């Protein structure tokens, strides 16, 4: 009897699994390996995606649009404390500033001229820039007001009817003036200097605006060059959402027609 033969009636021993079954097992392991690689790849790419998103947001904030949080009640009821507005930084490269625009501006060269600015180290500057992406600003020299007078405009309050007048044209301010407020408790009569703007808050009784800075450069007016951009929409909270359109009273043709005469020496 041969040592390699099988005894009669005995079953031959099974050999190792055949080739096709081995391939099936390997095929079952491949999707799991691919899923693991994709998972690891996502976590490796996530920091790059976050940095790219922050860089893009920074570029948009710097050159195009920026959010600002309303810190005081000086623009009530148009803007409430805590509202977030989106400011268009491009618009004034495409058109001039209009009466009735709500603008955000830097007061460090006008109302706050001569006041020391807080020093910032590199870390605090980075934090400030990051907060600025979400509309948070600790800069007390940044203001938001409504444009009442353009360069060359004659702005007076109050006229014989107790109303605010620009170039002799009475403004009907009921659409935006805070309920119960008068156009101004403080009398003034000014011709806006060249390159300057006369700005006021909608809540006149509490607004710190052009009226309160007669001793500042420009006599209370602000430089056009200090304007950061135009606030054009409320984006938060959802219940306040809406566009900040120019009130109809500023569209009176007589405003610009008279300005062409009274402000002709300032280039119109």
Automatic annotation (TrEMBL):
It holds the Pfam family Peptidase_S26. It is found in: Cell membrane; Membrane. It comes from the Bacteria. CDD domains: S26_SPase_I. The keyword Cell inner membrane does not apply. GO terms for cellular component: plasma membrane. It is a single-pass type II membrane protein. Residues 1-38 are annotated as: Disordered. One of its GO terms (biological process) is signal peptide processing. GO terms for molecular function: serine-type endopeptidase activity; signal peptidase activity. The active site is at residues 74, 145. The keyword Manganese does not apply. Keywords: Hydrolase, Membrane, Protease, Transmembrane, Transmembrane helix. Residues 19-35 have a biased composition (Basic and acidic residues). It catalyses: Cleavage of hydrophobic, N-terminal signal or leader sequences from secreted and periplasmic proteins. PANTHER family: CHLOROPLAST PROCESSING PEPTIDASE (PTHR43390:SF1), SIGNAL PEPTIDASE I (PTHR43390). This is Signal peptidase I. It comes from Trebonia kvetii. The gene is lepB.
């Amino acid at each position: 009897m041969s040592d390699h033969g099988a005894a009669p009636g005995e079953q031959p021993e099974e050999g190792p699994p055949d080739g096709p079954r081995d391939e099936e097992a390997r095929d079952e392991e491949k999707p799991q390996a691919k899923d693991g690689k994709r998972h690891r790849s996502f976590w490796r790419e996530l920091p790059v995606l976050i940095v790219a998103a922050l860089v893009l947001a920074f570029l948009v904030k710097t050159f195009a649009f920026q959010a600002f949080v309303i810190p005081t009640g000086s623009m009530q009821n148009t803007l409430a404390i805590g509202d977030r507005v989106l400011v268009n930084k491009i618009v004034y490269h495409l058109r001039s500033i209009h009466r009735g625009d709500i603008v955000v501006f830097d007061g460090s060269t006008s109302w706050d001229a001569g006041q020391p600015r807080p020093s910032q180290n590199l870390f605090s500057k980075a934090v400030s820039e990051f907060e600025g992406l979400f509309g948070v600003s600790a800069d007390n020299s940044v203001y938001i007001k409504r444009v009442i007078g353009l360069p060359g405009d004659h702005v007076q309050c109050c006229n014989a009817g107790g109303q605010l007048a620009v170039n002799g044209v009475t403004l009907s301010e009921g659409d935006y003036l805070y309920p119960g407020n008068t156009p101004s408790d403080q009398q003034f009569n000014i011709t806006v200097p060249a390159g300057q703007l006369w700005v006021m808050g909608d809540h006149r009784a509490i607004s710190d605006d052009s009226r309160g800075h007669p001793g500042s450069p420009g006599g209370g007016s602000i430089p056009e060059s200090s304007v950061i951009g135009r606030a054009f929409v409320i984006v938060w909270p959802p219940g306040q959402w809406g566009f900040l359109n120019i009130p109809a009273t500023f569209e009176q043709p007589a405003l610009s027609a008279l300005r062409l005469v009274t402000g002709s020496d300032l280039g119109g």
